[in-house]
Amino acid sequence: MSPHGHDVALTTIFDGERATVRRLRKSKLVVVSGADKGREVEVSKARVSGGRSIISDLVLQDKAISGAHFEIFARDDGYRLRDLDSRNGTFVGETRIHEVYLAPGATFRVGHTEIRFQPLQDIVEIALSERDRFDRVIGGSAAMREIFAVLEKVAPSELTVLVTGETGTGKELVARGLHNASPRRQKPFVVLDCGAIPRDLIESTLFGHEKGSFTGAVGQYRGHFEQATGGTIFLDEIGELDIGLQPKLLRVLEQREIRRVGGDRSVKVDVRVVAATNRDLRAMVNAGTFREDLYFRLSVMLIDLPPLRERREDIPQVAQHFLREVAQRRGLSLSFGQDAMTALMAGNFPGNVRELRNMVERAASLAEGPVITRADLAFGRESSYAPPTGTGAARALVAAGAGAGAPTGGGSGSFDAASLEVGVEFKEAKQRVVDAFEAVYLKAVLTRHEGNITRSAQEAGLTRYHLRELLKRHGLTGTGAE
After folding, report:
1. Which residue pairs, CB below 8 angstroms and at least 24 apart, start in 90-97?
2. I need a labelling partner for 204 at 20 to 30 A (CA). Which of 59, 92, 236, 427 fits?
3. pTM
4. How far is CA 413 from the centre of its chain?
C-alpha cells in the first residue's frame, strides 16, 4: 500500500540513492454494463485512456461518452482516475469527479457504461536510462531517465513523435535531441512555430507557393517541409494549427508529399516529423477543434514531459548546469549558497525549466560576490512570474487595451516595444509576453465572474480543464462554484 493508503501502482527500485528500475503492476479495465459489456483491455503502461475516439486505448460505442472521456494513470502513490473534461462527466457512485484515487476492484461510470478497474499480479519492468541527460535535456530523476530510455530507442527510427508538456518543460530541446541522435543529424532541422505565423500565411509557409499564386508571391517559395528534406521538421505549438489546414497536414503525413499553393503537381518530401504542444489535444478533439485522425497520426510515439515541480530532485542538477554556462560565458567562478539552493528546491516554477534558467541568469547578474544567496534569487523569482499590470511585458498588453479590465473587442491595438528585453531570442521574448498576457487575462476574467470556473471558461472560450491547467500554471485559483 502507498503512504496514502492506496494500492501501489508504480514502484521505483533504488541502489543507494540512484533509481535502477521502475516496476508497474499490470491491470485491466472490464466493461460490466452498457453497449460494450464484456469488452476489456489489459493495461501494461503507466497511462491508459477511454472514450469513443480511436485515440483511446479502450474504445467504447456508448453515444453518451466523449471522444476522449477519461484516463487512468499510475503513480507511486496509487492509481488515479481523471475525467478529461468530458461532456457528460465521470462518476464514482453518484459523485461526479474530476480526479480521484481508484481502489482495486472499484467501478466507475461514463455515459451509460459501467467499468471495473482490476489490478493484476503481473509486473512490467520499465527500463531507465543509464544517463542523466539526453542531448541538452538534463535530469537524473527516475521520471526523466524513463523518458530518456524511450528517446534513446526512438531517435534512430523514422517514427513520428508528439511531445507534450507545460510551457518551459523543454519540448524543443527534446525535438532537437531526437534529430541529433538520428541518422538525419547531418541534414536540416527546421522549426515552425504554428502559433507565430498569420493564418493566411501558414499554408504557404508549410508547403510553399508558386509565383503569382497570391498578391505578393513574386517568386517560387520552398516551404518548410521542402526545406527540411532529408532532415527533421519540428512543428511547435501544433494545437494552434487552423482546423481548415489540418487535413492537408494529415495528407502530408500519410503520403509524404506536398503541393505548393498555386501549384498543380505534388512534390515528394523525405522528412521526419516531430510535433509539440502545451495544450490538451484530447480536449480539443472533444471540442471539435483538432482532428482525431491527425492526433492519431502525430502521436505514434507520445512523450509527455513532467513539470519541474513533479521532479524537484532534478532542480539542483539543472540549476548547477545553468550556473556553469553563465560562469563560463563571463569567465567567472560562481556557486550557490545553501540558502539559495534551499529556496530553489522550494520553488513552484510555473514556467518550469525555462523559468529556472531565467532565475539563475538574473541571480548571477545581481550577485555581489561569487556565491549566490537567497537574497540574490528574490528579485529573479519575483520578475520571473507573470508581471502585474503596468510592468514589463504586461505593459504592452495595457497599451493594446488588454490590461486589468476585460479584453475589449475590435481594433488591432498597439505594442509597447519598451517592454521587450534586449538580447532575448524571439521565442523567449514571445513567451514572456504570452505568459504576461495569460496572467492578466485570467485574473480579469476570474475577477469578473467572482472566481466561478464554469462561467470564466465559457467567456474565455476554453474548456474547464484547460482553464484549470492555465490557472495552475500561473498560481491562480477559482473560488466560486463550478
Report:
1. none
2. 427
3. 0.78
4. 29
